[in-house]
């Protein structure tokens, strides 16, 4: 968890300020889509913060259920002042349990980003504090984004939740903050990720009944695609198909053990070689989640999601990442190693499943 000091003197857009040395060197590789998601979040912050009415409180939290941080809640609170200033506070070790406290490097990164130690900014109490005029919204947007990403360790903005409230705790409408998930006022402390589960599953009627994993998965995918579960493309094996440019992404539910596999046959009829295996290994090491491998003359990309204690946020992230990457990877690898893309122009895709299983034909 490290961060370099930022030069924010110029009028650069928030997303440009968010690009650090590691990000720009990533180019078009597999980290690119995650980097773009963080840029979207920074842009959203920069647009929203100057528009907040005085007294509005915007809480942004790394979802402890989705991120596996247990009782540790990593959060940033932004408050619009009566005089046009923006005050932000960020959680410190005083509010974190043993095993989840920030080390010296992380604390140094917070200071380098511009945070003042707890208690220095009036009203910050045990939290790190920062106060800036609304005209510095770009700078604050980057500081908050990098705090959540680089210091608190959020792997993707989809792992973030947020609420916006007024003086009386009533919900305040704010435009979407990238891939972060809006919680209804009061949900953050009580419902956590269950709120998203209920909203995604509401179309199934009685929410008190525990639905089968396959139905939960269908509800989440349908929500992402802005359709209904009945309208999803499902092959005879029960795999949900999602077209992503020249690639096809499948969502498969496995029962034993409970698992949701989000995968794509990136290239078929490929000729395996040591150069290919080396390339797939290098790309996998640079992926934020998931893996790439070659089996049965097919290059596969896969992101597994645990089915036990199923969390919609995990599946949303997996689908968002896979649909972006598969379309990018098939062209990239096709140009270097040949083979056939699922929806490649002039290609007649021959799809082979893992261990001979059928993945469905959509051509």
UniProtKB/TrEMBL annotation:
- InterPro entries, from UniProt? TY-Chap_M (IPR054343), TY-Chap_N (IPR054344)
- Coiled-coil annotation reads none
Q: Which Pfam families match?
A: TY-Chap1 (PF22551), TY-Chap3 (PF22552)
What region holds the TY-Chap central domain? 213-344
Record domain TY-Chap N-terminal: where = 36-160
Q: Which residues cross the membrane?
A: none
Q: What is this protein called?
A: YbjN domain-containing protein
């Amino acid at each position: 968890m490290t961060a370099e000091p930022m030069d924010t003197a110029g009028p650069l857009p928030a997303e440009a300020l968010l690009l650090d040395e590691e990000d720009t060197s990533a180019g078009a590789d597999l980290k690119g889509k995650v980097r773009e998601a963080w840029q979207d979040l920074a842009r959203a912050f920069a647009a929203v913060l100057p528009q907040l009415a005085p007294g509005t409180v915007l809480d942004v939290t790394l979802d402890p259920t989705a991120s596996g941080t247990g009782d540790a809640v990593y959060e940033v609170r932004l408050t619009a002042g009566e005089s046009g200033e923006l005050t932000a506070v960020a959680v410190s070790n005083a509010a974190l349990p043993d095993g989840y406290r920030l080390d010296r490097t992380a604390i140094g990164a917070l200071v380098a980003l511009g945070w003042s130690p707890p208690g220095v900014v009036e009203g910050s109490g045990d939290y790190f504090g920062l106060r800036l005029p609304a005209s510095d919204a770009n700078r604050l947007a980057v500081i908050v984004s990098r705090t959540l990403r680089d210091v608190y360790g959020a792997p993707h903005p989809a792992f973030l939740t947020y609420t916006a409230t007024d003086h009386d705790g009533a919900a305040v409408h704010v435009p979407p903050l990238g891939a972060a998930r809006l919680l209804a006022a009061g949900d953050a402390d009580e419902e956590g990720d269950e709120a998203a589960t209920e909203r995604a599953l509401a179309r199934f009627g009685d929410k008190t009944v525990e639905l089968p994993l396959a139905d939960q998965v269908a509800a989440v995918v349908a929500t992402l695609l802005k359709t209904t579960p009945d309208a999803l493309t499902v092959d005879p094996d029960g795999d949900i198909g999602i077209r992503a440019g020249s690639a096809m992404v499948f969502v498969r539910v496995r029962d034993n053990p409970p698992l949701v596999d989000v995968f794509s046959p990136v290239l078929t009829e490929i000729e395996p070689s040591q150069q290919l295996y080396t390339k797939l290994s290098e790309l996998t090491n640079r992926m934020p989640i998931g893996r790439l491998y070659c089996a049965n003359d097919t290059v596969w990309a896969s992101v597994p999601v645990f089915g036990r204690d199923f969390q919609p946020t995990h599946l949303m992230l997996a689908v968002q990442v896979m649909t972006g990457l598969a379309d990018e990877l098939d062209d990239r690898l096709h140009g270097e190693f040949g083979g056939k893309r699922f929806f490649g122009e002039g290609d007649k895709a021959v799809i082979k499943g893992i261990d001979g299983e059928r993945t469905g034909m959509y051509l």
